[in-house]
User: What shape does this take?
Amino acid sequence: MRWAAFGLCACLALAETAGAESSTSPAKSVAFASTSLVNVGAIVPPPAVLAVTLAKGKRKHLLHVSAFGQSFSIGANLVPQVNGLRIMEPLHDLRGRGGKPDEDWFRLRQEPYSSYEVVVDGAAGDVTPVVLERVAADGTTVLQSSAAVGLGAVRSLRFENATANAVDDQLVVVRSGGACSNKCKAGDVYRVRFYETTYASARFNNSGTQVTVLLLQNPASYTVTGSVRLWDATGALVGTSPFALDAKELFVLATQSVAPGVSGSLTVSHDGRYGDLAGKTTSLEPATGFSFDTPLVHRPR
Assistant: This one.
């Protein structure tokens, strides 16, 4: 079993368990030769982390991860938090040990009023079909199962944190549901990626004589649900509007009905795939006929 942690848009290896003998090995150095880093953010440790409890008789391997010249010895009590960063992971294998099937577990952090997607692709060997699930903190209760994407073995897990609090005690598990199961070998591999899918628009204005309209389209072939949230210039939440968009449907929101007399910014969290929505805000000045368009943007890959 392999443990890892997802930051805001990152995944870092944390610990691996295997075999029946109980022992603790020293920190190891891991090279990520194919790593591609974008959207660089600050790297700081979070104030607290979820304790990793291993079953009796399992052997724990501590990993050593480096990014941007900063090195971290990762153990059960410290997990680096990489904000605004996505790491292109090398392929993971589901090779069983001691006749037991391998499962890879990832801890993820969900920021308030935000949405995310976990994608497993690049499956090879006998690992398919891949099982991808979101699991509660007890490590047993399945909160959500993934959906197939396209004609291949790609799995997508999409979810929204619609609360005012960060959620950092949920887990994602990847395992083989295919022919190899507990007989998977080193060539039975997959790739996992983690995206924040929240959209943002830097401007709406319902003060004075101006009004702002949000246009949100679902170009995809499936239904997307979510929420539009409006924030004033101080960052205070001033209004929320839920939506459900069928395939190719357009949602039009007159923001003055939600936040009259207020200007600020807005965000859109949803259960769609990364980049599948399109939209903009249009601010109108009725007295002059002028209009100002501000596109909806998501975190770049």
Remarks:
- The chain is about 0% helix and 55% strand.
